[in-house]
Every structure is written in C-alpha cells, then in structure tokens.
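haha ok so turns out i had the wrong file open the whole time. this is the CORRECT one, sorry everyone. sequence first:
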Amino acid sequence: MLRLAVIVLLLANAGYYAWSQGLLRPLGYAPQEQSEPQRMNQQIRPETLQILKVNPSKTSSAAPSATPASPPLAAAANESPSPPPAASAPADTAECLQAGVFDDRQAEVLRAAAAGLPTGSWALEPTPVPGRWMVYMGRFDDVETLDRKRAELRTRKVDHDRAGGTFELGLSLGRFASKEAAERELANLGNRGVRTARVIQERAESPGFTLRLPAVNDALRAQLDVLRTAMAGKTLRTCG
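then structure:
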C-alpha cells in the first residue's frame, strides 16, 4: 500500500512539472502565459538610458548645514533681562513673653526696673500661689532616729524624702495641693502600716504676680536687659 502511494506521488509530481514547463502544450495542457506587451510600447528611447556613479564627498558637501541661525543682533539687543525680584524685608514679628511667679517683694523690684519701658508694653498680673499640704513624719530627735525610720519605710516600700526647711529633722511622704488630697493619702498609708504620720500645711496660700509682655518686637526686645537683674533668676518664656 505504501509503495503504491509513493508511485502515485511521483507520477503526480512528474505530471505537474511537465504541465508547468509547457511540455504538455501540444496536448492542450499548459499554464496561461502572463505578458504585458503594452508596457514595452510605452517606453521612450530606452537605448539612451545610462547608469552614473554618485560621488559621496560631493553629496555631503551639498547638504545644508544643521547649525541653527543666530538671532538678529538688533532683536537680541532689545531683549533686556528681567530684573530679579526684590527681596522683601523680614517682618518685625511680635511675640508674647512672660515670667514668674514673683512674690510681693520681687514684684516691687520688677515694677521699679520696668518703669522705663514703653507704656502698656508690660504688666504684673495677679497669680495667687496656692497652699500646699504634706503628709509628714517627724520631727525626730537625731539623725540616727531619722535613718531608722527611713529604713522602716523602705521595707514597707513607701516613697519618702527629706522634708527640708523648717521641717527638719523630718520626712515627707507626699505633698499635695489640697488638704483633702493629703488626708486621702494618709489613710492609704495607714492601711500599709504607717501609724505616726500626720497632715500639716507646708505652705499657706500667698499672693503672687506674673510678669507679662504681650507684644515684644525687635525694638522692645533690645530694652529688656533692664529686667534681667530684677527677675530673681527667672527667665522669660513664651506665653502659655
């Protein structure tokens, strides 16, 4: 079967070759000829055509220059550069400054020092100093007794420090802005075994004053040196 297929394929190829080459034209089997005689009739003196060589150097020299032309001098002269924007002067900004709190004596010193400043540029505003209460233990007879009590408090893990000032030799177990808060803490300490502490007023409420300069600009800032020695070590800060 395979041999028959090969023989048929060879005969078909041989027949196609004979047909395409016109070998079967006498039998009436041949491909149709493609010709355009009218193109030959349209040629005009084909014998005069010549093939010429092109000189590469002449071709490149004849190419136009790619360098852009410079602008006319007159036009360039008329175009003056734009002036740079003028730098604006920094604004003289004012800020609010304050210092304090000062007691009555310190406030009197400040009033005298600030008297030469512009009117309305400063003020001493009343700022009462609230009283303060302490959970206090003491006063002990000597340092040895004080140290023994401190060791006892450390064992009970109770925070404390030296009372200081007129309350030596004694210990502070906490300072509070109100008597009620101090008494609550004393009750808590009693639950932890602290029995000999008590609540005392460490500092009574007293009048106080805050120095306030609402609008300090550069001109006023240069005059503030007169206040430095009268401020009792306090410094000016931004108003809160």
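Residues 95-128+207-238 form a domain with the Alpha-Beta Plaits fold (CATH 3.30.70.120).
again sry for the mixup
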